[in-house]
Amino acid sequence: MTTFFSASQDAPDFTNNVLVLPTLSVGKVGGLTVDLLAATYGLPRVGWLEDENVLPVASNDTLTLLPRPDGALSTNLEVFQDVANKVTYVQQRAPVIRNRNAAFVQNLFQWIKEARFREVVLLSSVDSARRIAEAQFYDRHAITCRYVVGGGAEPKSSRFKWPLLEEGSFDSAFKNTSFTHLAFDACKRDGLAATILTIFCADGVNIPHAFAMADAAFHYLDLSHPQTAAAPASEDEKAKPPRWRPPTSWHHLFEMASSFDATLFG
C-alpha cells in the first residue's frame, strides 16, 4: 500500500487540490519540471509517500537554493504543496520495481481517492521517434507541448493553442511508459479528471524541455507568480511564466555547471 507520512503534526489538507505527477519517461522531463516548480515557488515539503513497489533512495537535499545546516534528506517519493494555488506535487526520484507498475498505480490511486484530489495532471515525455504528424505540421526542432484529456477534464487547445496528441497515437506514444498509461486508465476508471502534458524528446540534454514543460504547467494550472518574486508590473507580465530558478542539485549537471574541478580529470 501507499502510505503518506506528514512532515508536521498538522497533516496537510489535499481536498480539491490538483495533483501533479511526473512520470519516469524518456529524458526524465516530468521530474525535472517538478524540481523547477518546487524550487522557484519555494514549496514546502509537506510529507513523504512510502510504497513497497518503488525502489528506496536517499540523498542530500536536492531543492534548497542555499546550503542547509540541518542535514535535510531527499527520498524516493516526496510531496510538496502550493496552498495558494491549491496544487500538490509528488516528486518521484527512484524507479518502480520491474513488473510492479500496476501494483504501484493501484496503491497510489487508493491514496489519491482518500486524499480527495479533484484532478490529476501527468507530466510525461515521449520518444521523438514516435512522432506521427509533428514533423509535418510543426517545426521539428521546436519544443511543442501536446496533451491528452480524460475523465471529464476540459480540453484547452483553443485557450493555449496546444495540439492534442494525434487520434489513435496514444497507445503507440506511451507504449514504453506503462505508468502513464496505467495512471491515465485509473483516472478514467475512477471518474477522476485527468490530463497528460507531454513533450517529444530524446535522452540527452533535456533542460530546455523541462523549462518548456514548466511554462506549460504554469499556464495549464493557472498559477500565480511566486510570492518571493517581484510583483508583475502589468497584466501581460502576469500572464507570462516567472523566471525559473533551477535547484541546487542542477548545478552538477554538465549543461548547467559554470565550473568544474579539473583535478577530477587528471
Characteristic key phrases:
single chain, alpha/beta, Rossmann fold, 8-stranded mixed β-sheet, 266 residues, two-stranded antiparallel sheet
Secondary-structure blueprint of this entry?
Blueprint (H helix, E strand, L loop, with lengths): L2 E4 L11 E5 L6 H13 L3 E6 L7 E3 L12 E3 L1 E6 L4 E6 L8 H15 L3 E9 L6 H4 L7 E6 L6 H4 L9 H4 L4 H12 L3 E9 L5 H14 L14 H5 L27
Protein architecture, described:
The protein is built from eight helices and ten strands. The protein is of the alpha/beta class and 266 residues long. The chain has one domain: Rossmann fold. It has an eight-stranded mixed β-sheet, with helices on both faces. Strands 4-5 form a two-stranded antiparallel sheet. Strand 6 and strand 7 form a beta hairpin. The radius of gyration is 18 Å and the shape is globular.
What is the C-alpha radius of gyration, as a whole number of Å?
A: 18 Å
CATH topology: Rossmann fold
| Number of discrete domains | 1
3D shape = globular
CATH superfamily: PAC-like subunit
Number of E-state strands = 10
Keywords: Chaperone, Proteasome
Family: Belongs to the PSMG2 family.
Organism: Acanthamoeba castellanii (strain ATCC 30010 / Neff)
Protein name: Proteasome assembly chaperone 2
